[in-house]
Amino acid sequence: MDPLTHLLKRRSIRRFKPEPLREGDLERILAAARRAPTDASAQLYSILRVTDPRLRRELAHLAGDQAHVAEAAEFFVPLADVHRLERLLAHRGQAMARWPRTGLHFALVDATLAGAHLAVAAEALGYGICWIGGLLNRPAEAARLLELPRGVVPVSGLVVGVPAEDPAPRPRLPEALVVHENRYRAYTSADLDAAYAAMAPASRRGDWLFVLERYFARGGTMEQRDPAYGFLAARQGFVADWPPEAAEALFVRGHDAGSLGEALEALLVHGWRGVLFGKGPFEESVVWLEHETAAERGEGKTPGEALGRAVEAALPAEE
């Protein structure tokens, strides 16, 4: 099969035979992953291969009890990874600059490209694959199980194995709705109706809205995942105004704030009367947490760091 035909026929596989990959194929698909494009040669990704059966079962449970995570021949977790780059710079006496938002963006792109190369190579060899977005249902727990250092976050899961089913490819939106020329084109009502018509087979009820509503409307899966992902990004060092130590300090006190704003909201909602920011005599950031007649003070290089230390002083950690 030529490569284009192969790509146009691809589909997700969720049932696998209890067979390993053929000898040499694991090395081939990992080699393909390492040839993925990367910006400025940085390769801001890692690929974690999970072979421990118990760990596979735990990750399958976190992902919503998806059995194929544990049963497929291979399970990989593409990782957005700036940790290795920081170590490389330090190894030659250089300190990495602070660029958390840009770092997360390029690391996510690199990890996704590498994962896509791995997936396409596996499919070209006749294997089935399925991306596991459910791994981000509880991303901080996944990061803990995988012992990810600061600067590393999971992007998704990816199962690879010998297919035990042959489903038809799922529908996709028409080209006219996803390909724009020169400028982004505004969608008409007819365009949106065409989208729903094209994607109707994606739902057992024959209406794509049931899928979109479940995942993306108010109260849906993505809204539920967002706070947990925000906390993970902060704890792993990818949020500019909320240092990992501050995020962890608030988390062990019962709040999973992913930004300085979310931290302030949590404190005010839970009885703190006010938060006062200021500058100390040496231009350090200073925060006072006020509660009735009491106040706690924290200092740090940034307002977020100062707030984290004030939280540590003011609140007991939950056991």
Characterise the protein shown here.
The protein is α+β, with helices and mostly antiparallel strands and 319 residues long. The chain folds into three domains: 159 residues, NADH Oxidase (3-Layer(aba) Sandwich); 48 residues, no CATH class; 85 residues, 2-Layer Sandwich (Double Stranded RNA Binding Domain). The protein is 44% helix and 15% strand. Strands 1, 2, 3, 4 and 5 form a five-stranded antiparallel beta sheet that branches. A three-stranded antiparallel beta sheet has the order 6-7-8. Helix 2 runs antiparallel to helix 6 and helix 12 packs parallel to helix 14.
Which word captures the global form? globular
Q: How many structural domains in the coordinates?
A: 3
Give the distance, in angstroms, between the N- and C-terminal Cα atoms.
58 Å
Q: Which regions are unreliable across 5 or more consecutive residues at pLDDT < 50? A: none
Average of pLDDT? 93
CATH topology of the largest domain: NADH Oxidase
Radius of gyration: 23 Å
> How many beta-strand runs?
8
CATH architecture of the largest domain: 3-Layer(aba) Sandwich
Q: What is the H/E order?
A: HHEHHEHHEHEEHHHHHHEEEH
Could you state the CATH homologous superfamily of the largest domain? NADH Oxidase
Largest sheet descriptor? 5 strands, antiparallel
CATH level 1 name of the largest domain: Alpha Beta
Per DSSP, the total helix count is 14
Question: Roughly what fraction of the amino acids lie in strands?
Answer: 5-15%
